[in-house]
Hints:
It contains 10 helices and 7 strands. By secondary structure, it is an alpha/beta fold. Strands 5-4-3-2-1-6-7 form a 7-stranded parallel sheet. Strand 1 (36-40), helix 4 and strand 2 form a beta-alpha-beta unit. The longest helix has 14 residues, at 184-197. It is globular and about 45 Å long.
Amino acid sequence: MTPLAFLLARTLRREAPLMALSVPQAALLEDLRGRTVALVGNARALATTTHGAAIDAADIVIRINRAPMPAPASHGSRTDWLALATGLPAADRDRLAGAHKLWMSPKRKRLSHAVALSPGFYLHPLPDYARLAAEIDAPPTTGLMLIELLARSRMKSLSLFGFDFFASLSLSGHRSAGQVPHDFAAEAAFVAALMARDSRITRAE
Length: 205
């Protein structure tokens, strides 16, 4: 797709041409079959831990948005998949250039041509977003969308790092919980219920 055709599809909210750029969701989930996954959130509290080795030991390491990694000891150093809901500054694009890109946000106007044409690009379907938003009665975070999506795969395990549902705020910003449009109590309850019925999913403290 040319830059102009992409811009028109994005501006005019033509979902079909954009979805045609994406790998099928079934193929994305099949890539996880039998594999261990580390999903790294951006909670500030993760910087005080020594989970880096455990993160890098996973078969697939997934990070979110700008994927801050203040130190290998706490955050590890690998990024295999990068889930996005916002644009990336140039320095972060260079640092995370090799990562497989997943666009999770329903806000297609934020999606760049470069990301959409990157190898193995995945675009999260709008009905999936709407279904999860209705379930928790709030716009879901990128992290929650990923957890729900990954749980549908035949992965071996999913380890959550840096997920405290905004208790320690975020390494990637300075806003308080009241300044973001998410219901973190509802998300914590959703994940707790999911973990209770799916023993593959664990959360590191």
